[in-house]
Amino acid sequence: MLLAGACLGAGPVAAQSLPTAVAALPVSARRAYYQAAFEQRALQLYTKLGLGSTGLSLPVFREGLVGYYNLRPKGQKTSGSSVLTLIDFARSSQQKRLWVIDVERAKVLFHTLVAHGKASGGDVPVAFSNRDGSEMSSLGFYRTAPTTYTGKHGLSLKIQGLDPGFNSNAESRAVVVHGAEYVCDDFVKTHGRLGRSQGCPALPVAETAAIVKAIRGGSIVYLHGPAGAGYRSQWLNLDTAAASYASLNPTGADARANGGE
């Protein structure tokens, strides 16, 4: 593995011996090893998926991945939980700013438009709220419901806010993933921006069913905002994310399979 010699200081180490060797390191060295492995994985995946060319910045992708590994079941690779949805509300609504990524399969499943709340701003949202009735988007990490339902907007999916103070009222506010006719290129051409929701991350109608089915069942959704939004989260802890990544990939086989050494 690429990091073995640098972190262990003893030249190449056989992959099968890495878990034991790393476990024997002092805590600070082990933490550094895990963090380096995580950063390598993040960069490899970002490059392999060509996310830069689609407008997703590496820092935003990395934040989403940190939260993804912190919120995964510890030490388990469970079916249906390998999907990460990223929404970058620091970008214009005229741009495709939603990505659905299967992390374990290293595949972008969807890249499309998504609306923000009407009280959050015009083309680019500038204000966010967790308050009932605010009609603003709420930043942070969410977990999707196990099943879909059919509501006033057709096929929809509930999401549970995981960041107290930022999105924890998502359920009482009825913030859900649904389709909307105002989320389309024609609306942008006419109005210079997308239509806006009451706080829901609304999707193009034609893509809603496929996206909702792909992300249901406990997957992670991350809504990122502009730098001045003041968002903070326990789920952005690199130490715990790196340790979780290491527990899921103890020999580095996953990184090698996706372009590592």
Explained architecture:
The chain has one domain (4-227, 235-257): L,D-transpeptidase catalytic domain-like. It contains eight helices and nine strands. It has helices at residues 4-8, 18-23, 27-48, 58-71, 185-191, 205-215, 238-248, 253-257; strands at 83-88, 98-102, 107-112, 140-144, 149-151, 154-161, 176-180, 202-204, 220-224. Strands 1, 2, 3, 4, 5, 6, 7, 8 and 9 form a nine-stranded mixed beta sheet that branches.
- The helix count comes to 8
- Architecture per CATH nomenclature, i.e. the level-2 architecture: Beta Barrel
Rg is 19 Å
Q: Helix fraction? A: 25-40%
Q: What is the CATH superfamily?
A: L,D-transpeptidase catalytic domain-like
Report the end-to-end length measured between terminal Cα atoms: 5 Å
Number of domain modules = 1
Mean pLDDT: 87
* Low-confidence residue ranges: 1-17, 253-261
Structural class label:
alpha+beta
Which percent band covers the strand fraction?
A: 15-25%
CATH class: Mainly Beta
Which outline best applies? globular
SSE topology string? HHHHEEEEEEEHEHEHH
